[in-house]
């Protein structure tokens, strides 16, 4: 007898990656994709927790050399850094292969790393749309990717006179997301498999 119990599906590696609400959606992302990695979960909370990790972290195993597919170098990568949380924050976008800087902004006062990751993603999306580029965009921040998809910056940071400029940028980014469509694929950078994202500021 077929179960009607609701499930959520995490796709770590597939045609598209993310959390999907039905098996049919999941199947579309994994069909004809060699080495697809996915799993069903009983609750959305469990799925989100699993997707916040790489597949190998979730399974608590080391990736096999044959499983480690290289990143797609027809892409750009974005990252942010902050001195303190909140603190001085900056973000940048680079060509994934050459690491040439495509844009760099900041530092801004009293902002968080998640805000920087969010602004970097939206900046990258706007740039690729302007260039009519078919490149994908990498981010190592599950939080920022979620905010972009929801078109919301769910920061707990409280606005004040020191971070006024940051909140102007946040609102501008949200406005862009709400008034623009895009076909750019946003992909989670797999740090455990590939090392630090090319846009990393190297301050760890």
Question: What does this entry show, briefly?
Answer:
It is built from 7 helices and 8 strands; from the N terminus they run E-E-H-E-H-H-E-E-E-H-E-H-H-E-H. By secondary structure, the chain is of the alpha/beta class.
Count of all domains: 2
Side-by-side strand order of the widest sheet: 6-5-4-7-8
Mind telling me the CATH class of the largest domain?
A: Alpha Beta
Uncertain stretches of 5 or more adjacent residues: none
CATH topology of the largest domain: Nucleotidyltransferase, domain 5
Kindly report the average pLDDT value. 89
* Strands, count: 8
* Topology pattern, helix = H, strand = E: EEHEHHEEEHEHHEH
Tell me the layout of helices and strands:
Layout: E1 8-13, E2 18-20, H1 23-30, E3 37-41, H2 44-51, H3 55-59, E4 75-84, E5 87-95, E6 101-111, H4 113-131, E7 136-139, H5 142-150, H6 164-179, E8 186-188, H7 191-194
Helix pairs in contact: 4-5, 4-6
Structure, explained:
The protein is globular, with a radius of gyration of 18 Å. The model has no long low-confidence stretch (mean pLDDT 89). It has two domains: 8-61, 3-Layer(aba) Sandwich (Ribonuclease HI, Chain A), CATH 3.40.970.10; 75-188, Nucleotidyltransferase, domain 5, CATH 3.30.420.10. The termini are far apart. The strands form two sheets. It has a five-stranded mixed sheet with strand order 6-5-4-7-8, covered by helices on one side. It has a three-stranded antiparallel sheet with strand order 2-1-3, with helices on both faces. The chain is built from seven helices and eight strands, in the order E-E-H-E-H-H-E-E-E-H-E-H-H-E-H. With 204 residues, the protein is an alpha/beta fold. The protein has helices spanning 23-30, 44-51, 55-59, 113-131, 142-150, 164-179, 191-194, and strands at 8-13, 18-20, 37-41, 75-84, 87-95, 101-111, 136-139, 186-188. It is 34% helix and 25% strand.
């Amino acid at each position: 007898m077929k179960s009607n119990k609701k499930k959520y599906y995490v796709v770590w590696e597939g045609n598209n990656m993310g959390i999907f609400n039905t098996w049919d959606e999941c199947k579309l992302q994994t069909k004809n994709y060699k080495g697809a990695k996915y799993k069903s979960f009983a609750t959305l909370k469990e799925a989100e927790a699993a997707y916040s990790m790489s597949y190998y972290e979730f399974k608590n195993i080391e990736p096999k050399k044959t499983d480690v597919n290289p990143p797609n170098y027809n892409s750009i990568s974005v990252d942010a850094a902050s001195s303190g949380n909140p603190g001085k924050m900056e973000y940048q976008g680079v060509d994934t292969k050459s690491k040439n800087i495509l844009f760099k902004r900041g530092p801004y006062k009293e902002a968080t790393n998640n805000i920087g990751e969010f602004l970097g993603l939206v900046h990258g999306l706007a740039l690729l749309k302007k260039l009519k580029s078919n490149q994908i965009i990498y981010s190592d921040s599950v939080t920022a990717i979620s905010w972009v998809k929801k078109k919301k910056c769910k920061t707990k940071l409280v606005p004040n006179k020191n971070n006024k400029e940051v909140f102007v940028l946040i609102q501008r980014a949200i406005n862009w997301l709400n008034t623009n469509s895009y076909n750019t694929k946003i992909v989670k950078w797999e740090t455990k498999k590939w090392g630090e994202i090319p846009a990393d500021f190297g301050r760890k």
